[in-house]
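Pinned message: reference record for 2-hydroxy-3-keto-5-methylthiopentenyl-1-phosphate phosphatase
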Amino acid sequence: MRSDKQPIVFCDFDGTITDNDNIVAIMKHFKPEGVDDIIQDTLDRNISIREGVGAMFALFPSSQQEEITSFVINQAVIRAGFGEYLDYLKSQGIPFYVTSGGIDFFVKPLLEPFGIPEDHIFCNGADFSGDTIEITWPHPCGEGCSNECGMCKVTVMKDFSPDDYFRILIGDSITDFEGAKKADLVYSRAALTEQCEKLGVNHVPFHNFHDIIQDMNLKSSQGVL
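Predicted structure (C-alpha coordinates):
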Protein backbone atom coordinates (compact mmCIF):
# COMPACT_ATOMS: atom_id res chain seq x y z
CA MET A 1 0.00 0.00 0.00
CA ARG A 2 1.42 3.38 -1.00
CA SER A 3 0.47 6.69 0.54
CA ASP A 4 1.17 8.58 -2.72
CA LYS A 5 -1.92 7.09 -4.37
CA GLN A 6 -5.21 9.01 -4.42
CA PRO A 7 -7.71 7.30 -2.08
CA ILE A 8 -11.13 6.70 -3.64
CA VAL A 9 -14.23 5.07 -2.13
CA PHE A 10 -16.75 2.73 -3.78
CA CYS A 11 -19.72 2.14 -1.49
CA ASP A 12 -22.57 -0.33 -1.72
CA PHE A 13 -26.11 0.90 -0.95
CA ASP A 14 -28.49 -1.84 0.23
CA GLY A 15 -27.44 -3.16 3.63
CA THR A 16 -24.48 -0.75 3.68
CA ILE A 17 -25.67 2.85 3.34
CA THR A 18 -29.07 1.58 4.48
CA ASP A 19 -29.44 -0.69 7.49
CA ASN A 20 -31.33 -3.33 5.51
CA ASP A 21 -31.48 -4.68 1.96
CA ASN A 22 -34.32 -2.86 0.25
CA ILE A 23 -34.85 -5.42 -2.51
CA VAL A 24 -35.21 -8.15 0.11
CA ALA A 25 -37.59 -5.89 2.07
CA ILE A 26 -39.76 -5.35 -1.03
CA MET A 27 -40.00 -9.08 -1.70
CA LYS A 28 -40.78 -9.96 1.93
CA HIS A 29 -43.45 -7.27 2.20
CA PHE A 30 -45.29 -7.81 -1.10
CA LYS A 31 -44.59 -11.56 -1.47
CA PRO A 32 -45.34 -11.94 -5.19
CA GLU A 33 -46.16 -15.51 -6.14
CA GLY A 34 -43.06 -17.47 -7.12
CA VAL A 35 -40.51 -15.08 -5.59
CA ASP A 36 -39.18 -17.53 -2.97
CA ASP A 37 -37.89 -19.94 -5.62
CA ILE A 38 -36.17 -17.11 -7.49
CA ILE A 39 -34.52 -15.82 -4.32
CA GLN A 40 -33.25 -19.30 -3.45
CA ASP A 41 -31.90 -19.91 -6.95
CA THR A 42 -30.08 -16.56 -6.79
CA LEU A 43 -28.58 -17.26 -3.35
CA ASP A 44 -27.54 -20.75 -4.48
CA ARG A 45 -25.99 -19.18 -7.61
CA ASN A 46 -28.08 -21.36 -9.89
CA ILE A 47 -28.92 -18.11 -11.68
CA SER A 48 -26.98 -14.84 -11.88
CA ILE A 49 -27.77 -11.79 -9.77
CA ARG A 50 -28.90 -10.00 -12.93
CA GLU A 51 -31.24 -12.81 -13.93
CA GLY A 52 -32.59 -13.18 -10.39
CA VAL A 53 -33.31 -9.50 -9.74
CA GLY A 54 -34.89 -9.10 -13.16
CA ALA A 55 -37.13 -12.11 -12.60
CA MET A 56 -38.21 -10.93 -9.14
CA PHE A 57 -39.38 -7.52 -10.31
CA ALA A 58 -41.05 -9.00 -13.40
CA LEU A 59 -43.54 -10.56 -10.96
CA PHE A 60 -44.92 -7.07 -10.21
CA PRO A 61 -47.36 -5.14 -12.41
CA SER A 62 -46.03 -1.71 -13.36
CA SER A 63 -49.14 -0.19 -11.81
CA GLN A 64 -47.57 -0.88 -8.37
CA GLN A 65 -44.72 1.59 -8.98
CA GLU A 66 -45.96 4.24 -6.57
CA GLU A 67 -46.91 1.71 -3.88
CA ILE A 68 -43.50 0.00 -3.98
CA THR A 69 -41.58 3.27 -4.06
CA SER A 70 -43.51 4.66 -1.08
CA PHE A 71 -42.93 1.46 0.88
CA VAL A 72 -39.16 1.55 0.37
CA ILE A 73 -38.74 5.23 1.16
CA ASN A 74 -40.87 4.97 4.30
CA GLN A 75 -39.13 1.90 5.73
CA ALA A 76 -35.50 2.50 4.76
CA VAL A 77 -33.08 3.63 7.50
CA ILE A 78 -29.79 5.32 6.63
CA ARG A 79 -26.89 3.80 8.57
CA ALA A 80 -25.54 5.92 11.43
CA GLY A 81 -22.71 8.26 10.50
CA PHE A 82 -23.26 8.30 6.74
CA GLY A 83 -23.69 12.08 6.46
CA GLU A 84 -20.67 12.67 8.68
CA TYR A 85 -18.67 10.24 6.57
CA LEU A 86 -19.44 12.18 3.40
CA ASP A 87 -18.35 15.38 5.17
CA TYR A 88 -15.14 13.66 6.29
CA LEU A 89 -14.32 12.49 2.75
CA LYS A 90 -14.98 15.97 1.37
CA SER A 91 -12.65 17.50 3.96
CA GLN A 92 -9.92 15.02 2.93
CA GLY A 93 -10.45 15.45 -0.82
CA ILE A 94 -11.42 11.79 -1.25
CA PRO A 95 -13.88 11.01 -4.09
CA PHE A 96 -16.96 8.95 -3.16
CA TYR A 97 -18.94 6.73 -5.55
CA VAL A 98 -22.10 4.75 -4.83
CA THR A 99 -21.92 1.36 -6.53
CA SER A 100 -25.31 -0.22 -5.96
CA GLY A 101 -27.11 -3.31 -7.15
CA GLY A 102 -30.29 -1.48 -6.13
CA ILE A 103 -32.76 0.23 -8.43
CA ASP A 104 -32.81 3.92 -9.31
CA PHE A 105 -36.45 4.52 -8.30
CA PHE A 106 -35.54 4.06 -4.63
CA VAL A 107 -31.75 4.55 -4.54
CA LYS A 108 -31.78 8.10 -5.88
CA PRO A 109 -34.64 9.50 -3.75
CA LEU A 110 -33.01 8.09 -0.60
CA LEU A 111 -29.64 9.63 -1.51
CA GLU A 112 -31.04 12.98 -2.64
CA PRO A 113 -30.68 14.72 0.77
CA PHE A 114 -26.92 14.05 0.74
CA GLY A 115 -26.11 15.96 -2.45
CA ILE A 116 -24.09 13.21 -4.12
CA PRO A 117 -23.49 14.13 -7.79
CA GLU A 118 -25.62 12.15 -10.25
CA ASP A 119 -22.56 10.86 -12.09
CA HIS A 120 -21.20 9.43 -8.83
CA ILE A 121 -24.20 7.11 -8.39
CA PHE A 122 -24.08 3.79 -10.23
CA CYS A 123 -27.18 1.62 -9.94
CA ASN A 124 -29.69 -0.33 -12.02
CA GLY A 125 -32.74 1.23 -13.65
CA ALA A 126 -36.43 0.37 -13.93
CA ASP A 127 -38.85 0.65 -16.83
CA PHE A 128 -42.53 0.91 -15.86
CA SER A 129 -43.90 1.39 -19.39
CA GLY A 130 -44.86 -2.27 -19.89
CA ASP A 131 -47.36 -4.49 -18.09
CA THR A 132 -44.73 -5.61 -15.57
CA ILE A 133 -41.65 -3.93 -14.11
CA GLU A 134 -38.55 -4.37 -16.26
CA ILE A 135 -35.16 -3.83 -14.68
CA THR A 136 -32.58 -2.19 -16.95
CA TRP A 137 -28.82 -2.59 -16.72
CA PRO A 138 -26.89 0.56 -17.66
CA HIS A 139 -23.66 -0.66 -16.00
CA PRO A 140 -23.22 -4.31 -17.03
CA CYS A 141 -20.15 -6.53 -16.69
CA GLY A 142 -17.32 -5.69 -19.04
CA GLU A 143 -13.98 -7.30 -19.76
CA GLY A 144 -12.62 -8.91 -16.61
CA CYS A 145 -15.96 -9.94 -15.10
CA SER A 146 -18.35 -12.60 -16.36
CA ASN A 147 -20.59 -12.96 -13.32
CA GLU A 148 -23.64 -11.23 -14.83
CA CYS A 149 -23.64 -8.87 -11.84
CA GLY A 150 -26.23 -6.49 -13.24
CA MET A 151 -24.48 -3.41 -11.85
CA CYS A 152 -20.85 -4.49 -12.10
CA LYS A 153 -18.64 -3.02 -9.39
CA VAL A 154 -15.49 -4.46 -10.98
CA THR A 155 -16.22 -2.66 -14.26
CA VAL A 156 -16.80 0.67 -12.47
CA MET A 157 -13.57 0.27 -10.48
CA LYS A 158 -11.54 -0.50 -13.62
CA ASP A 159 -11.86 3.12 -14.70
CA PHE A 160 -9.64 4.03 -11.72
CA SER A 161 -6.22 2.47 -12.20
CA PRO A 162 -4.64 0.75 -9.18
CA ASP A 163 -1.40 2.47 -10.24
CA ASP A 164 -2.94 5.85 -9.41
CA TYR A 165 -5.70 5.13 -6.89
CA PHE A 166 -5.89 3.48 -3.47
CA ARG A 167 -9.27 1.80 -3.98
CA ILE A 168 -11.50 1.38 -0.93
CA LEU A 169 -14.66 -0.72 -1.14
CA ILE A 170 -17.45 -0.67 1.46
CA GLY A 171 -20.05 -3.45 1.35
CA ASP A 172 -21.97 -6.19 3.09
CA SER A 173 -22.80 -9.10 0.79
CA ILE A 174 -21.54 -11.58 -1.78
CA THR A 175 -22.53 -9.09 -4.51
CA ASP A 176 -19.60 -6.94 -3.30
CA PHE A 177 -17.04 -9.72 -3.27
CA GLU A 178 -15.70 -9.49 -6.83
CA GLY A 179 -15.05 -5.79 -6.26
CA ALA A 180 -13.54 -6.53 -2.86
CA LYS A 181 -10.94 -8.78 -4.46
CA LYS A 182 -9.80 -5.83 -6.60
CA ALA A 183 -9.75 -3.27 -3.77
CA ASP A 184 -6.73 -2.19 -1.72
CA LEU A 185 -8.87 -2.01 1.40
CA VAL A 186 -12.34 -3.35 2.24
CA TYR A 187 -14.72 -2.22 4.97
CA SER A 188 -17.08 -5.15 5.42
CA ARG A 189 -20.23 -6.29 7.14
CA ALA A 190 -22.19 -9.54 7.34
CA ALA A 191 -21.67 -11.99 4.47
CA LEU A 192 -18.87 -9.93 2.91
CA THR A 193 -16.84 -10.24 6.13
CA GLU A 194 -17.28 -14.01 6.03
CA GLN A 195 -16.17 -14.18 2.39
CA CYS A 196 -13.14 -11.96 3.03
CA GLU A 197 -12.08 -14.07 6.00
CA LYS A 198 -12.50 -17.26 4.00
CA LEU A 199 -10.29 -16.11 1.13
CA GLY A 200 -7.84 -13.88 2.99
CA VAL A 201 -8.93 -10.54 1.52
CA ASN A 202 -7.69 -7.48 3.45
CA HIS A 203 -10.73 -6.12 5.29
CA VAL A 204 -11.87 -4.17 8.35
CA PRO A 205 -15.30 -5.08 9.78
CA PHE A 206 -17.55 -2.13 10.63
CA HIS A 207 -20.90 -1.50 12.26
CA ASN A 208 -21.53 2.10 11.21
CA PHE A 209 -19.79 4.88 9.29
CA HIS A 210 -18.29 6.35 12.47
CA ASP A 211 -16.19 3.16 12.65
CA ILE A 212 -14.91 3.77 9.13
CA ILE A 213 -14.02 7.40 9.85
CA GLN A 214 -12.05 6.29 12.90
CA ASP A 215 -10.14 3.62 10.99
CA MET A 216 -9.40 5.88 8.02
CA ASN A 217 -8.08 8.55 10.39
CA LEU A 218 -5.82 5.92 11.96
CA LYS A 219 -4.56 4.73 8.59
CA SER A 220 -4.00 8.32 7.49
CA SER A 221 -1.85 8.96 10.58
CA GLN A 222 0.12 5.81 9.74
CA GLY A 223 0.76 6.98 6.17
CA VAL A 224 -1.39 4.23 4.64
CA LEU A 225 -3.86 6.71 3.11
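Pinned by admin. Summary line: The chain has one domain: 6-221.
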